[in-house]
Design a protein that fits this description.
The chain is of the alpha/beta class and 458 residues long. It has 19 helices and 15 strands. The strands form three sheets. Strands 4-10-9-8-7-5-6 form a seven-stranded mixed β-sheet, sandwiched between helices.
Length: 458
């Protein structure tokens, strides 16, 4: 435990104390995590592992929903932050220029060919800024987005996040937001023909939608259609960017360039929150280039000197350690092993899919008799999907951390840091195989026992 006096009351707290504190946060979410056995007292994180207070280590195949690119607490980033603070380098300066934001913007320009950056603290802030940018630059107001897409939960981002569960309680959302099927260029062209669309917002691979991969050439066709109708293309690479899919950015597989690129998650180095809007100079100038418009898109904490220094070094680590290449090669091995599991467990696994180290396993629905026998309370506990139960068993029986995708809860996501190696994949596959060998009813009973024990745990 820590020897730092200011950290003592936090880091030395046991799990029960933490549960008490979480009563002042999102109590239902805290209970859901606890009841499903996600109730460990983690005290250390290093590369691909978490460690609990009992000395157990857990393989991280959740990766913070994709933010863990370079591994937990990368030594180079730890030294950077320590040196930064020990040397009393300024972090915040609103009325002046610090080097970090400019250096990071120049690095991103070199990687993308896009000239201007705006930095914030999270992905959803970047989506909000992108909608504003597109509306002002084009003089149009409509936004087209794809079914299954996830762009955030703030009001504007939520307006183009295609899940009624999240949208309906907050109506009316932004007007003139149109949902079309993902991977359907004909549907896209029908909307853009009306010549009133400011922005098309897409993920190159849908993460929360269930790891949905479009047909080869889809993004290139989307790019052509957007050009034809003078509509801006936003590619949301908040989850797919920084090497996750096997290239620095997923759009590079199609040899195109978006008008607006959204980044966050992995940009953080798994240390400090940061998001980036990246766009063409011509678009930026139309929206915010006039003197009167210079303060229309700003952020108090966004683009501070420390978070941008961490992000810049994160890019260097990805390049020097060849993490994108590792993601591509290891991702192929992961997918081939998952397909073998699908062949072995065809009644449980509907599909496996992935690109790089962004993969998903889609499970079948429980037999009808399960729904008939389950009480309302049981359904609430199980979320009516096998993925939740598989994740529960993986964590509590095999020390492997995973979770389902938010917009498709039948899909178990697999997103390890790009520092993973073949042995980690083999460990995951072995744990999955042993879990799925339980078959449906024994799997359900095993998950139920873990949940019951967790609920009764004092």
């Amino acid at each position: 435990m820590t020897k730092n006096k200011d950290l003592e009351s936090i880091q030395n707290a046991d799990y029960q104390q933490i549960r008490e504190w979480h009563k002042h946060l999102n109590t239902v979410l805290a209970w859901r995590l606890h009841s499903r056995g996600f109730n460990k007292r983690y005290v250390k994180a290093q590369n691909i592992y978490y460690f609990d207070d009992k000395g157990n280590k857990y393989l991280d195949f959740l990766g913070g929903y994709g933010l863990n690119i370079v591994g937990h607490n990368h030594p180079r980033l730890k030294k950077l932050v320590t040196d930064f603070l020990e040397e009393d380098i300024p972090i915040f300066m609103q009325a002046g220029h610090l080097p970090g934001p400019g250096a990071l913007a120049e690095k991103i320009r070199a990687l993308t060919g896009l000239d201007n950056c705006f930095f914030a603290n999270s992905g959803t802030e970047i989506i909000e800024a992108s909608i504003k940018l597109a509306r002002k630059a084009t003089g149009r107001s409509r936004v087209v987005y794809a079914d299954g897409g996830f762009h955030g939960k703030s009001l504007g981002a939520l307006s183009i996040t295609a899940r009624p569960k999240y949208q309906e309680p907050y109506q009316p959302l932004l007007p003139e937001c149109t949902c079309i099927p993902f991977n359907d260029v004909d549907a896209l062209e029908r909307e853009l023909k009306q010549e009133d669309v400011a922005l098309v917002a897409l993920e190159p691979v849908q993460g929360e939608g269930g790891i949905n991969i479009p047909d080869e050439g889809y993004l290139k066709k989307v790019r052509d259609i957007c050009d034809r109708y003078s509509t801006l293309l936003l590619l949301d690479e908040i989850q797919t960017g920084l090497g996750r899919t096997g290239k620095m950015f997923a759009y590079q597989f199609e040899d195109i360039t978006p008008d607006i690129l959204a980044l966050a998650k992995g940009l953080s180095g798994t240390l400090l929150p940061i998001g980036a809007l990246v766009t063409k100079s011509s678009i930026w100038q139309k929206a915010f280039g006039a003197r009167k418009d210079a303060t229309q898109q700003t952020s108090t904490f966004g683009g501070n000197n420390l978070s941008t220094a961490v992000a810049l070094t994160t890019f260097k680590i990805i390049e020097e350690e060849k993490l994108a290449e590792n993601a591509e090669n290891l991702g192929k091995y992961l997918l081939s092993e998952l397909k073998k599991l699908q062949e072995k467990h065809p009644k449980l696994i509907v599909d496996v899919r992935g690109k790089g180290l962004l993969a998903g396993i889609e499970f079948s629905h429980p037999p009808n008799i399960a729904s008939q026998l389950a009480s309302q309370a049981t359904e609430m506990m199980f979320d009516e999907n096998i993925a939740t139960t598989v994740a529960t068993v993986l964590l509590n029986k095999h020390n492997v951390l995973t979770a389902y995708t938010l917009n498709n809860t039948d899909v178990l996501r697999l997103e390890p840091p790009l520092t993973a190696c073949k042995n980690h994949i083999d460990e995951l596959i072995k744990a999955l195989d042993e879990t799925l060998n339980l078959k449906f009813w024994r799997l359900l009973l095993s998950g139920s026992k873990i949940m019951a024990d967790s609920i009764l745990k004092k």
